[in-house]
Every structure is written in structure tokens, then in C-alpha cells.
Amino acid sequence: MINSETKKVLYIEDNIADIRLFEEAISHQNLAIDLNYVTDGQEMLDYFERSKQGHYRDLPELIITDLNLPKISGQKVIEVIKADPVYKRIPIIVFTTSNLSRDIEKCYEYGANAYMHKPLDIDKVFDTIELIDKYWLRTCLLISNPLAEMAVERVAYE
Fold first, then answer.
1. Residues 1-12: tens digit of each pLDDT
2. Is 134 exposed, middle or buried (0-12, 13-18, 19+ CB in 10 A)?
3. Distances (CA, A) of 41 to 50, 103, 146
4. Do residues 146 and 56 touch, judged by C-beta distance below 8 A?
5. Considering the entire predicted model, what is its pTM?
6. Domain range for residue 109?
7. Domain count, the chain
């Protein structure tokens, strides 16, 4: 593992079996991921509002979302997140069974940073989660506190 520092990930997924599989992959591969999850688009927006009211404390470094969510679609969730000046700095990976070009195009249009097809084979799901960890959480340089980064930018411009 390149960097063993624990990274916070928010997973937006309505299928509890998929959430458990994600947790199993983290445990089985001993990945340093602190996984939180919400199970629908409205729950994500509520999480988002609570975070804003708490002055954006304890933000995830990465958001992974399913596309087909109850109540509010994954595309709408992406659009709302990317409209916020703090949350827009957090990468969003769409992790879904849909491989329709219109879904892919819409997600990128709304600001998704990656679109990954969710494999049906359990071993391939484990491999994909390990790939997400290695690339997004261990190789990419992410902003762990976007507010601190924004404050530094404001000082630099003044």
C-alpha cells in the first residue's frame, strides 16, 4: 500500500448487499478506508445539509455513488454537490451497473470525476474497490479539508 493513512469515503448506495460487499472488500483487503454510507439521494442531501450547518466538518475525501437511487437520482445528487463551493472539490465516482452512454454523458456533464461499471462477479468487485483505493485514495493528491485549502487561496489572492 502506497499510503496507509485512513481515508474517509462516503458511499451512496440503496442496495444493502452492495454496501456489505464494499465493506467486505475493505476488510478482506485490509484497506485503510473509513466508509460511511447513505441509502438514497434524499438521505445524501440531508447529510450534505447537516455538514453545511456544521461548517463542513468531517468531510469525506471521496464520494462514490450509485446512479439509480430512490427519491433523488444519482445524477441530481452530483449536480447539487458540484454546485457547492466546498463539496465540489471532493471527487465523485459513479459506481453503477448502467453502461448506457446517455447515463455516462449526463454524469460527466453534472461533474462526476469518474464513471465505473459495477461488475457482477464478486472477485471483480473486490478488484475494482482495490483499484479505487490505490488510484483515488493512495495515488491522487486529494484535499482532505477543502475549507482550509480555500482559506489559503483567499490569502494568496489578497
1. 446 799 999 999
2. middle
3. 14, 16, 23
4. yes
5. 0.89
6. 7-157
7. 1
